[in-house]
Amino acid sequence: MKEKRFTIIDEAAMHDFGAQLAGALKPGDWVAINGPLGAGKTVLCKAVIRHFGYTGEVSSPSYALVHHYDGAEMDFPIVHADLYRLSNIEDLEELGLDDGRDDCITLVEWAEKSGDYFGDADFELTVIPYGEGQRTVILLQRN
After folding, report:
1. Which domains does the chain have, with CATH numbers?
2. In this model, does residue 98 exceed pLDDT 70?
């Protein structure tokens, strides 16, 4: 597993990083994203989703837990989950995150709450805030 560290100086840089990450993703990839509240996990996910051409509303799935993005302008769907409010690991099965996983990219915020339910992620990101709006992103990539 390769580890890389990135310094993100502001929200625009997080968007740029998300677009760069998206360039490495393909259908079937599962991306685990961890970090404290307000770290920028959703901003990163929005950048990835936008990179693949989705033009509709992109919002945090904190309350719905899962959003599916599959616009006509996209070549494949993206599943965006936020497990922050997940109270029980057994509830993961009801979310259907494993359904059709080979045909889409799956982005999971607060992935640490899933334990080893999904097995190893293709990409693991940890977002660590520091200073005024700055972040360090640690990226672990399998392959």
Report:
1. 2-141 (3.40.50.300)
2. no
